[in-house]
Design goal:
By secondary structure, this protein is an alpha+beta fold. The protein has one domain. The protein is 24% helix and 28% strand. It is built from 2 helices and 2 strands, in the order H-E-E-H. A two-stranded antiparallel ribbon has the order 1-2. Strand 1 and strand 2 form a beta hairpin. The radius of gyration is 16 Å and the shape is elongated.
Length: 75
């Protein structure tokens, strides 16, 4: 699926800022205060954070782009 819709996913995950309506950040919310940082090398860190995903809004976008089928379209 990723290679079939490569252009969509490149644009979707491209960092253009929070005001871009096509940006993936429209579909997630970062939970403040839940961040983990671990040093994995001399100058390398692995950082993790907890996010929630607006599944309804994301599903609607993917359906509009014909990447996934609507749940009410049947099997």
């Amino acid at each position: 699926m990723e290679t079939e819709f490569e252009d969509f996913f490149k644009e979707f995950f491209e960092s253009k800022g929070n005001k871009d309506l096509n940006n993936f950040s429209k579909y997630v919310n970062v939970i403040e205060g839940v961040t983990d940082r671990m040093k994995v090398g001399k100058k390398e860190y692995r950082i993790g954070t907890l996010v929630t995903v607006n599944v309804t809004l994301l599903r609607k976008k993917l359906e509009e782009e014909n990447i996934i089928k609507s749940l009410d379209s049947g099997f």
